Amino acid sequence: MTTAPSTARLFNDALMADPYGTYARLREAGPVHRTTTPDGAPVWVVTRYEDVRAAHTDPRLSLNKANASTTGRFQSSVPPELDSHLLNLDPPDHTRLRRLVSKGFTARRVEGLRPHVQAHVERLLDAIADRAADLMEALANPLPMMVICELLGIPAQDRGNFRNWTRSLRGSEENSAVESRTSMREMHRYLTDLIAAKRNRPTDDLLSDLIDARDERDKLSEAELLAMAFLILYTGYTSAVNLIGNAALALLLHPEVMISVQAGSTPVRAMLEETLRWNPPVTLGTRRFALEDLTIGGVAIPAGSRIWVSLASANRDPAQFHDPDRFQPERPPAHLGFGQGIHYCLGAPLARLEAEVALTHLLHRFPELRLAVAADEVEWMPSFHHRGLKTLPVTW
Ligand code: HEM
Fold it and tell me: Which Gene3D superfamilies match (predicted)?
């Protein structure tokens, strides 16, 4: 057993500017690093593929923050009323709640949405009039918002608000904690009112189904109902946006792959899986807490410690992937971009469908698509947890 190397401030500008280079150096230096979160809480960062994969299925790691021995200086911007969701819970509560929503997200159920998603994509692409566009604004941002709001049953006229609220959380390292907290409070109030309205007049959507599970079958508490709506809306939007953006960028940076996808030699799905490895929308998994003293990669970690598993680092581990920095859609998919185990992404089939339809139609409509700025000029949202573009200027 060894002790972890200590890195005073890992979550700094250097990591933000070059996540993969920084993680490569860390991974090389040791499997687990002790550092502090941006808000000052001690944290252990896990860097290697095998350890990250194993941590996802280790029952000694809890997602419930009641098991933390330390906290940061700032409170989370998410109000405690929205806390009782899947990514803060362990079995048996997690199992009960996940069962309630999982049938809405099976591959078969989601496949039924394809014609609908196609129609949205066609409409968004029709609206691109000039010979230049920001793909984030024109396609990657609006599509997942339309789809997740329809699935949940958020009226069309309210969707603009959601976009602003989730944006403020998405770029939360840049925004003030006060701004994020205000957005979250507004979102909380809105969801509370919407649930009340749907109680009086149920509609055919996931939120009405959840309200029914609460009122008629007593399967979840009011707090769990609210938090579930919040989680699905938030995660269903942010990461799907980033998958579409990151996949489009990967194609623009690799013209040979773009040609191969256009020729039908590389399936769009394979290109998306490689994007989830090479530049994953979620770079750090949800924080976990050690329920007992344990070791990861031979490093001793005391009970109560906060653990961050780096998906970005695991996905570029040369012990798992040959030549990991190369974008190679033909490699067998083994990425951890959607996590693993009981918290494996609920929305993975939906995210894959949205991105597949978006990218397929985009390449068909604009076969000559290219970046309108130099590769090193693309700008990223400032986040240690997510990897997403601010804008994606293209021309054709
Ligand atoms: C490309 C897009 C997406 C990526 C990369 C992604 C990534 C992830 C990851 C890594 C986790 C596991 C977190 C952990 O265990 O630490 C997760 C969980 C989850 N994701 Fe996604 N996600 C995406 C899209 C979506 C969509 C569209 C939805 C919509 C429903 C969604 C809903 C969820 C939920 C509810 C969980 C928690 C599951 C649980 O705890 O049982 N995600 N996602």
Answer: Cytochrome P450
Instruction: List Cβ<8 Å contacts ≥24 apart for 168-177.
Output: 169/77, 169/78, 169/234, 169/238, 170/238, 170/381, 170/383, 170/386, 170/388, 171/381, 171/382, 171/383, 172/77, 172/383, 173/16, 173/38, 173/382, 173/383, 173/384, 174/381, 174/382, 177/74, 177/75, 177/77
3-state SS, 212-272, equals HHHHCCCCCCHHHHHHHHHHHHHHHHHHHHHHHHHHHHHHHHCHHHHHHHHCCCCCHHHHH
Task: Give the residue, by CA position, lying nearest to ligand 1 atom 7.
Answer: 338
* Strand (E) or helix (H) holding 302: none
Instruction: Determine the distance from the C-alpha atom of residue 22 to the mean position of all C-alpha atoms in its chain, rounded to a whole number.
Output: 21
Structure confidence at residue 74 (pLDDT): 57
Can you give the residue ranges of every domain in the chain?
A: 13-395
Task: Return the best residue to mutate from 235, 244, 272, 385 for the ligand 1 pocket (most ligand atoms within 8 A of CB).
Answer: 235
d(CA 155, CA 14): 41
What is the best residue among 279, 345, 346 to mutate for testing ligand 1's pocket, by most ligand atoms within 8 Å of CB?
345
For ligand 1, whether the C-beta of 272 sits within 6 Å is: no
According to CATH, what is the number of the domain 13-395? 1.10.630.10
Q: Which two tokens stand for residue 118?
A: 């196609």
Reported as a single tens digit per residue, the pLDDT across 86-109 is 999 999 999 999 999 998 898 888
